[in-house]
Structure formats: C-alpha cells, structure tokens
C-alpha cells in the first residue's frame, strides 16, 4: 500500500514537471507582462506652452490707404479664456499702440463689439478658439467708420436738468431694454451696407423707439 502511494506521488511530480502551470503559461504567452507590471510607465509630459496666433486689423491715420493685418502670438496658458483677454494682453505686453473699445467685460455695455473670424460679436463673451483651429482674425465691425463720434448735433433743450421717467413710461421699455446697442446686428445687415443713409438698421430703429 505504501509503495503504491509512493509510486503515485512520483508520477504526479513527473507530470507537473513536464506540464508548466497556468501562471507559467501566461508568462510565456506574455513575455513582457511581468516587466511592464514591475516598472511604472511615466505619462508623457504635457506641452508647457499653447501658442495661438491672432491676426489683428491695423489702420494708421498717417497712411490711411494701406491697412494691414498684424500677427501676434499669445500663450493661451498665460491668458484668460476670452478674446478680450487676449487683446488686453497684447496691448499691455506687446504693442501699446493697439486701440480698441471696452468697458464692462460682462456683455452689458456693448463697447467691445467687433468682427471675430468673420462673425460680429462681443470680444468679452467670445471664447478664444483652440490653437489647433488656426489663426483668429479680428477686424472692426464692417461698413462703419473707424473713427467714432458721439457729439450731439444740437444742444439739449434744458441743459443740466435730469429727464424724469414715470413707471408707466418705464413699462413701455419692457422687451426693448435688453438691447445693449452694440451694433452687431446692423453691421451684419446687407441693406445697411448698401443704403446706410436710407436704412438705419434695427439698432437705430430700436433706439429711436426707446
């Protein structure tokens, strides 16, 4: 009986030696698995900069017949997310002669209306496209004079006197006061381009009604 058990044990040992275990077969099938698990794979280093090119319309009053596009490169990692942030950075750090209008930075005043990549909009509400999208072109609103004027043609009837408004008159503005008179709509209208003297545009009509 003992000799039988001994022979059986020897037979099992020889079989195990001849047949590799499941773990051994896995290692043989994946020769690099143990090495990859033993070593930590370091992630690829992210780029430290993200450069974006802005092509900005420039006009020199000393040479008005030759406007041009000037390129500026901004690292988006060191700039705010909006187009106005990039313009402010360019003016403060690269070219102080760059001139544009701005005020509230919250889409309320309409001062920073301009044409961005072919579409009229507010620079403070327009996000900077990714650098992979190519250069961003910024130009003034189309078909309007670059030199603005806000001078009255006639003096006020009662200078220095505040114009009072009743609650009833104020209620008439509901539905119209949301317009911030940025002129993006008017400068997008072909009728305004072709006949500015005859068709004043939606912004002017709304302002007159107000």
Automatic annotation (TrEMBL):
Keyword field contains Hydrolase: no
Subcellular location field: Mitochondrion inner membrane
Disordered: annotated span: 13-47
Reaction it catalyzes: a quinone + succinate = fumarate + a quinol
Compositional bias ranges of the Basic and acidic residues kind: 32-47
Record text on cofactor binding: Binds 1 [3Fe-4S] cluster.
Positions of the 4Fe-4S ferredoxin-type domain: 169-199
Primary enzyme class: oxidoreductase
Gene Ontology molecular function: 2 iron, 2 sulfur cluster binding; 3 iron, 4 sulfur cluster binding; 4 iron, 4 sulfur cluster binding; electron transfer activity; metal ion binding; succinate dehydrogenase (quinone) activity
Bias-annotated ranges (Low complexity): 13-29
Membrane-protein topology: Peripheral membrane protein
Catalytic activity, EC: 1.3.5.1
GO biological process: respiratory electron transport chain; tricarboxylic acid cycle
Cofactors that this protein relies on: [3Fe-4S] cluster; [4Fe-4S] cluster; [2Fe-2S] cluster
Keyword Disulfide bond set for record: no
A Pfam entry, by short name: Fer2_3
GO cellular component: mitochondrial inner membrane; respiratory chain complex II (succinate dehydrogenase)
Highest taxon of source: Eukaryota
Domain 2Fe-2S ferredoxin-type residue range list: 54-144
Keywords on record: 2Fe-2S, 3Fe-4S, 4Fe-4S, Iron, Iron-sulfur, Membrane, Metal-binding, Mitochondrion, Mitochondrion inner membrane, Oxidoreductase, Tricarboxylic acid cycle
Pathway: Carbohydrate metabolism; tricarboxylic acid cycle; fumarate from succinate (eukaryal route): step 1/1
Assembly behavior: Component of complex II composed of eight subunits in plants: four classical SDH subunits SDH1, SDH2, SDH3 and SDH4 (a flavoprotein (FP), an iron-sulfur protein (IP), and a cytochrome b composed of a large and a small subunit.), as well as four subunits unknown in mitochondria from bacteria and heterotrophic eukaryotes.
Functional note: Iron-sulfur protein (IP) subunit of succinate dehydrogenase (SDH) that is involved in complex II of the mitochondrial electron transport chain and is responsible for transferring electrons from succinate to ubiquinone (coenzyme Q).
UniProt family annotation: Belongs to the succinate dehydrogenase/fumarate reductase iron-sulfur protein family.
Protein name (Swiss-Prot/TrEMBL): Succinate dehydrogenase [ubiquinone] iron-sulfur subunit, mitochondrial
Record lineage: Eukaryota, Viridiplantae, Streptophyta, Embryophyta, Tracheophyta
């Amino acid at each position: 009986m003992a000799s039988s058990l001994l022979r059986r044990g020897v037979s099992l040992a020889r079989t195990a030696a001849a047949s590799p275990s499941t773990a051994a077969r896995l290692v043989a099938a994946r020769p690099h698995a143990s090495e990859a698990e033993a070593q930590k794979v370091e992630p690829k280093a992210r780029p430290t900069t993200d450069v974006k090119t802005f092509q900005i319309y420039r006009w020199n009053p000393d040479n008005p017949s030759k406007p041009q596009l000037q390129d500026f490169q901004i690292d988006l990692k060191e700039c705010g997310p909006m187009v106005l942030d990039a313009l402010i950075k360019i003016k403060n750090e690269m070219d102080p002669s760059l001139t544009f209008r701005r005020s509230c930075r919250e889409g309320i005043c309409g001062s920073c209306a301009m044409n961005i990549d072919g579409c009229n909009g507010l620079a403070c509400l327009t996000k900077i496209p990714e650098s992979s999208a190519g250069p961003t072109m910024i130009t003034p609103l189309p078909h309007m004079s670059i030199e603005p004027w806000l001078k009255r043609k006639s003096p006020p009837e009662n200078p220095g006197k505040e114009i009072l408004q009743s609650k009833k008159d104020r209620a008439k503005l509901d539905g119209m006061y949301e317009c911030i008179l940025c002129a993006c709509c008017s400068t997008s209208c072909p009728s305004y381009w072709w006949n500015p003297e005859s068709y004043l545009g939606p912004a002017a009509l709304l302002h007159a009604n107000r």
